[in-house]
Amino acid sequence: MRELELDLPLAGTAASRFLQWIVVGLTLLAVCAFAVGVAGDAAVREAARRPAMVTLAIAISADRAAEAEQRLLQFLRARPEVLYAEPVPESELAGLSDPQPAAGHEPQGGLLLLPRLIDVALRPAAIADLARFEAELRELVPEVTVGAASPPTVTHAIGRIARAVGIGLGVVVLAVAGVTTILVTRNSLDRHEETVDLLRLMGASDRYVARQFELHALTTALRGAALGFAAGVLAFLAVVELARRFGGGIGQEVALRPVHWVLLATVPVVMVLLVTLSARTAAFRGLARLR
Amino acid sequence: MEPPDTVVLRLQSVGMRYDRGEEVLCDLDLAIKAGTFFFLTGPSGAGKTSLLRLLSLSHPPSRGIVELFGRDVGQLDREQRGSLRRRIGVVFQDFRLLDHLSAFDNVALPLRIGGLAEEQIAMYVSEMLSWLGLGECMECRPGQLSMGQRQLVTIARAVITRPSLLLADEPLSNLDSRRRKRVMHLFTQMHRQGTTILMATHDHELLRHHPFGAIELDAGRIVRVTEGLARQAAE
Questions:
Q1: pLDDT (tens place) for every residue of chain B, 235 residues total
Q2: Which residues in chain A have Cβ-Cβ distances shorter than 8 Å to B85?
Q3: Which of B60, B99, B113 minimises the CB distance to A208?
């Protein structure tokens, strides 16, 4: 690609030449970090869409149990937050309990009082107010208890960590890119002070000189960010593929949605804007410092 | 261009020093009217280049007042100094060409800074370089040019904007007689069109052949100012 010809020979400065490769490396890191972040976000959202399972237990005498169970089922099936409610069949109930009463506490008639159980699938949002849900059920049948909701899956927990770490790391990488550009621009300004003086002697304004740095940073960042983005996406896909093959199912959970790819595609754009603006700002400040 | 009889350049008790050294210019008092042409003469180390640096706003005075186009340059902010500098053309003794740019782009630089359209820049620069005999070298970098050609590129860059004030530091020193005549012809034409010119030179032949004024410097002080016709009559 033909170098942009500027009044200042910025492309010849060592620090400026490295800027392109610094941008490649930092874009690669930022893309990977944000890819981990959005993959974590995708996992969290997917886990949040899964229904939460709770089990209701009705510890009540056998003669009232059937009627209480029916009343609860009727109530539950009418509720919008309940996806389904099914009583656990008596055949399964027997298998769930293994009564071993202590000596002297054997039930009368030789039978244990087994609770009736109802499996309930709730919409994820309903989990937030499980206590109110239980209170409403107790108004119908005071003997009912609501078991703990199914705990968040491992994927959900890992997803949250990945989201926080990935996005945090990505932001740090972007900050590093900004700081690096400022340092490179300052260095270039010091090295080309004589040429800047000459341009000013011809009447060049600070805006004109800063534009030279801005244009150089823009073209450098465009090339660097494009290369870095391509490398970052390839690296991320390779890691996902390896995880699918050898990661014991972890990779199966990583599925980015189109919106996530769009978000990832903004990383090089943000990188280019950040590098360009940092160069412009550093140039203006540096020019104000020069006599 | 400034109207005739307007003072374009005024120095009042001006001194100048580099860093913390001794003053290289002392107690300069001078007023130059628009449209005049002065040679700046004196032995080496007299302060000719320092005075041109001072007037081109490359270096600030250590004391006194420098007025250009009626404005005290010490009171100007950076933007105002920039717009003032666009009215001044400077021929540097050491050329100060940008090595990474072609001869064409070096000459085009002040026009680009001034925001002229590229088509006009191409027209003006080509015309100027061709007139100076550099038509074949437009795309050459300074490193590929002879000293004389570099000198011509520097001159072309200084005059391409038709400045109101031209400051030239030994502009003919690297040129053969044919090119010297051509450049002096250019300067004379600019002078006739109203450009104020201050040209440092060692060349007494030049002074004899051109009816312009002279400012003589010695040890950083102005020792004599002679108007053009008076100088010729005296000689």
A1: 677 778 999 999 999 999 888 889 999 999 999 999 999 999 998 999 999 999 999 999 999 999 999 999 999 988 888 889 999 999 999 999 999 999 999 999 999 999 999 999 999 999 999 999 999 999 999 999 999 999 999 999 999 999 999 999 999 988 999 999 999 999 999 999 999 999 999 888 888 888 899 999 999 999 999 887 655 555 5
A2: 200-203
A3: B113
Q: Tell me whether residues A203 and B90 touch, CB distance under 8 A.
A: no
Q: How far apart are CA B26 and CA B218, in angstroms?
A: 10
Size of the A and B interface in Cβ pairs below 8 Å: 48
Instruction: Give the pTM.
Output: 0.74
List residues of A whose CB lies inside 8 A of any B CB: 5, 7, 9, 12, 195, 197-206, 208, 291
Nearest-10 Cα torsion for B52, B58, B61, B62? -130
Report the Cα B52 to chain-centroid distance in Å: 7
The residues with which B88 forms a beta bridge, in sequence order, are B165
Q: Is B116 on the interface with A (CB under 8 A)?
A: no
Mean pLDDT across A111-118: 73
Rounded Cα gap, residues A202 and B156, in angstroms: 13
**Which residues lie closer than 8 Å to A267 by C-beta, 6 or more apart?**
A27, A30, A31, A34, A170, A229, A232
Whether residue B204 lies within 8 A of chain A, CB to CB, comes out as no
pLDDT tens for each residue of B20-33: 888 899 999 999 99
Q: What single letter denotes the amino acid at residue A265?
A: A
Q: By the CB < 8 Å criterion, does B118 face chain A?
A: no
Task: Among A16, A199, A202, pick the best mutation site for testing chain B contact (most B Cβ within 10 A).
Answer: A202
Contact between A199 and B113 using a beta-carbon 8 Å cutoff? yes
Q: What is the pLDDT of residue A153?
A: 65
Q: Higher confidence at residue A211 or residue A1?
A: A211
Strand order from edge to edge, sheet including B37-41: B88-91, B165-169, B196-200, B37-41, B213-218, B221-226
Mutate to test the interface with A, among B55, B68, B73, B113 (most CBs of A within 10 A): B113
Domain boundaries, given as residue ranges, for chain A: 10-47+154-289, 51-96+107-146
Q: Assess contact for A101 and A90: CB atoms under 8 A.
A: no
ipTM (interface predicted TM): 0.87
Q: Which residues of B touch A9 (CB under 8 A)?
A: 98-100
Fold of A51-96+107-146: Alpha-Beta Plaits (3.30.70)
Q: What is the DSSP letter of A3?
A: P
- Rounded Cα distance between A132 and A150, Å, is 17
Q: What is the pLDDT at residue B25? A: 94
Q: What DSSP string runs through B182-193?
A: HHHHHHHHHHHT
Q: Which of A180, A184, A124, A177 minimizes the C-alpha distance to A149?
A: A124
